[in-house]
Design goal:
The protein is α/β, with parallel strands linked by helices. The chain has one domain: 2-Layer Sandwich (Nucleotidyltransferase, domain 5). It has 3 helices and 5 strands. A 5-stranded mixed beta sheet has the order 3-2-1-4-5.
Length: 119
């Protein structure tokens, strides 16, 4: 019984750390959106910081790396919807590039993360 409790504890600590690593420090646009944490259901979380860098799992990625990550995620989770967390000061061209890359990889929809108004 104690072994099971320790295994569950390790599992929850690990998954919590993975969910937090999907969230880089970006200043999201303030807009109403869906409530809830959709990171667990997404295949990929792409962060775009203010300078326009692509960040996936706390690592900056080049456009070619982002392309291969998107293709792999689409292959492994064909029905999942990736999340894009773009800083409000990021160039719009970077957001457009990520959307096109995800579309070319095989995703049919994306979610744009926003912050609640008045935050």
């Amino acid at each position: 019984m104690v072994d099971v409790v320790f295994l569950l504890l390790i599992f929850f600590l690990t998954t919590t750390q993975m969910a937090q690593s999907a969230r880089s420090a970006v200043d999201l646009p303030e807009e109403e959106g869906e409530e809830g944490d959709l990171v667990a259901r997404s295949a990929l979380v792409v962060n775009i910081d203010a300078s326009g860098s692509y960040i996936v799992m706390d690592d900056a990625r080049s456009p070619s790396e982002l392309n291969s990550l998107a293709r792999e995620a689409a292959y492994l989770n064909p029905g999942a919807i990736p999340i894009i967390r773009a800083d409000r000061r990021a160039p719009a061209s970077r957001l457009n590039f990520v959307v096109e890359t995800l579309r070319d990889a095989g995703f049919t929809a994306v979610r744009l993360a926003t912050a609640p108004e008045g935050r």
